[in-house]
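From: lab user (bench 3)
To: helpdesk
Subject: output format question, protein + zinc ion

Hello, I'm new to running complex predictions and I'm not sure whether the block I got back is the full result or only part of it. Here's what I submitted:
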Amino acid sequence: PLVSMKEMLEKGKENGYAVGQFNINNLEYVQAILQAAEEEKSPVILGVSEGAGKYMGGFNVVVAMVKSLMESYGTPVPVAIHLDHGSSFQKCAEAIHAGFTSVMIDGSHSPIEENIAVTGKVVELAQIHGVSVEAEVGTVGGEEDGVIGGIKYADLEECQRLVKEAEIDCLAPALGSVHGEYQGEPNLGFKEMEEILNAVNVPLVLHGGTGIPTKDIQKAISLGTAKINVNTENQLAQTRAVRKTLEEKPNLYDPRKYLGPGTEAIKETVKGKMREFGSSNQA
Ligand code: G3H
Ligand code: ZN
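Helpdesk reply: Thanks, we reran it on our side. This is the complete output you should expect:
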């Protein structure tokens, strides 16, 4: 069933596992991720960036595609459709009205007062629709959808204020993680994560899940991280498989035959993450 993230994240936080957010780009991603979730008996979050939403034909198309695939699969596990890095109240409202069950309002690039104000506005609308809300403090490094930023650690007091004043369901405190591949080992601020966990009473979100070693994933989960976002790793796995197939059979032209192996690769990657995050058999 399609649900908000609220309950799945609270259960994850309570029981020491994290639910993966896997970003979708087209039909094949939705197929691969839903199949992985069903086979692993795992709750799952389908992440949709504004750019990917536009690419797929708009938020309405995304919701129709996901709902209809879930119906034809008879998907038995909880699934959330979540707007990733929503850039404005407008975009979040558009996603909510299209039927998304969860949104992230990313006001992290504005001063905290503005971040709290826009997040509070989104929460007010979201609550009417039973939609969960994620918000961010600090800056995740690297690039997403063309927006490039340096790393800025989340400020403890700002985290406290955002959670308290805007009543969000989960918080993404940027603590050294990066979108895309890491240059060398990631250096996550676990001390800060612990302080934030103790100061706010909501599940934490880790962005930039690609390339984080298992020991860091486990440490983050032990410090209240109940949602981990993965995007690049699926894209790399898919592209690697498609490239290999086309190299081996340069005369292929039927998209089903070269995209199929890419879809399998996404599915295997997602299943591996679900096991690593501990969400397998938790649906
Ligand atoms: O919001 C999405 C992500 O944080 C994904 O990051 O592409 O590094 O896995 P990633
Ligand atoms: Zn992110």
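A quick orientation on your result: The chain has a mean pLDDT of 97. Let us know if anything else is unclear.
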